[in-house]
Amino acid sequence: MTTTRRTGTFDEVPGPQGSALAGVAPEFLRDPISVLERSFREHGEMVAFPFGPKGKLGKRVVAAYHPDAAQQVLTQTERTIGRGPASTQVLEDMIGRNLMTTDGAEWRRQRRTLQPLFTPRRVAEYTALMVAEAERVTTEDVPADAERVDLHRLMLRYSLRVVGRALFSGDIDDTAPDLHRLIPLTNELIIRRTTQLVKPPLPVPTPRNRAFVRTRQELYALIDRILARTDHLAAGQERDDIVTRLRTARDPETGEGLSRQEIRDQTLLMMMAGHETTATALTFALHLLGSHPGVQQKAADETGAFLRDGGDLAEYAQRRESLVRACLLESMRLYPPVYMTEHLATEDIVLGGYQVPRGTAVFLSPWVTQRHPDFWPEPERFDPGRFLGEQSRPRYAYLPFGGGPHVCIGEHFALLAATVLLEAVLRRFRITSEDDTVTFQQTGNLRPDKPVWARLVRR
Ligand code: HEM
To answer: Where on the phi/psi map is residue 52: left (φ > 0), alpha (ψ -120 to 50), or beta?
Structure first.
């Protein structure tokens, strides 16, 4: 006998009450991950959150935690689902019109033009520079006498150099202090403005607005300075970095190239989107390896055996399945750098068994879905074996890079850069984490909120 469940109304979606004046907004701004986790525990796979005052002035936002609902949201993007409303405008105000801030025809044109630059084959061409930077950071930046190192700081340095060199060829170390200051500041200002209930237009000179505009000017001046270094080069001349590829990229359908401003905005986006996320993924992976010596030794042995058998690091890093890659994937399951994404129902839809009206914001959370006990037994346990051999869970039970048409364009790049680094560290050092847990900020993306100490002892 089959039973069909009635589709619930929007009002019937369960969820926390929140306060009469603000709903869950204050708690959510303070500690979004706890709010998301608790809502799943207490209300299940589909939850509605009240934001703002009760009644017509407030709004209800839904979060969908089941992999099938995540699949629907991600694969319906561009049809019945659009970009999250709150963050996109602010992001555009800060870093212009690019892959992450456009929708519809404009986004499609940009994505078509950029996609060929990020296929696994094109990305593999950056392996040599990743290997060189991984060697550099593990030889030059780790003290010889195995003092404690701040993993996060080290990984920020590595990921900035890798993204920077891939984008611009030239070493951008001289701009690193400015970038290290500006990128977190930019993220923070974006979050602050996104979560501001009343947003005065940017020309109004409030202290927050002034900081926003000043930071944007600094960021643009910096990126223009870096881009100017390569302006004089003829396209394709002895270089194959992403900026050169952007300059020569053509829309396969129309043959159109990107304007100078578009090149700048995409470059800025890639710096922003690729640098901190990759560093966070690596920091947590190293921390977890440093607290699981048995797994760490096995991963080091596997890398060592591969190299002894005549393989090289680049080749090992490109293998689809390896223990090192599995450790990385498992740590991004537990600590997804992008722990939540925001979407918008552009039509009335049925999601997770409930009617969701057009105009409703929809949250997905890799953090919660990747801990769903139906798909991840003992969800809190670090077990890289989950990513080895046959895997029978739904595709969207794991979604650190999103999915569907807007799937992260840098996925292959990030996975390769991170795998290369982990191998380089494992080959040279035994890692011992000093802290049991890593505490983090949840502003925007996940980011450790203080140094992540470990000892790296030479093997
Ligand atoms: C571990 C590292 C990374 C993680 C976890 C990550 C995660 C994500 C996620 C979850 C999305 C989808 C966002 C949404 O649906 O709203 C996304 C989109 C995007 N990511 Fe990444 N990312 C990483 C690295 C990178 C790198 C290295 C680059 C560039 C070189 C990059 C560029 C982008 C861009 C341009 C988009 C927007 C794609 C579109 O909407 O068409 N990311 N990323």
So the answer is: left
237 CA from centroid of ligand 1 (Å): 29
What does each C-alpha distance from 427 to 67, 93, 148, 158, 416 come to in angstroms? 36, 44, 18, 17, 17
Residue 170: inside a domain: yes
Closest ligand 1 atom to Cα of 118? 30
From the CA of 260, how far away is ligand 1's center (Å)? 22
Q: Assess if residue 3 is contained within a domain.
A: no
Q: How many domains are there within the chain?
A: 1
**What CATH number should be reported for the domain holding residue 406?**
1.10.630.10
pLDDT in tens, 167-220: 887 767 788 888 888 887 888 888 888 877 778 999 999 999 999 999 999 999
Which protein residues are within 6 Å of ligand 1, measured from CB?
A: 99-100, 111, 269-270, 273-274, 277-278, 281, 337-338, 341, 400-402, 406, 408-410, 413-414
In a domain, 2, yes or no: no
Task: Tell me the pLDDT tens digit for each residue of 248-264.
Answer: 888 888 888 888 888 88
Ligand 1 atom nearest the C-alpha of 107 is 41
For a mutational test of ligand 1's pocket, the pick from 408, 416, 446, i.e. the residue with the most ligand atoms closer than 8 A to its C-beta, is 408
- Domain extent, residue 251, equals 10-458
Model confidence at 11: pLDDT above 90: yes
Under a CB-based contact definition with an 8 Å cutoff, are residues 345 and 373 in contact?
no
Q: How many angstroms does the Cα of residue 411 sit away from the middle of ligand 1?
A: 7
Classify residue 1: in a domain, yes or no: no
Helix (H, G, I), strand (E, B) or coil at 178: helix
Residues 400 and 337 sit within 8 Å (Cβ to Cβ)? yes
pLDDT digits (tens, 9 = 90+) for 364-392: 999 999 999 999 999 999 999 999 988 88
Beta strands in 181-260 (DSSP E): none
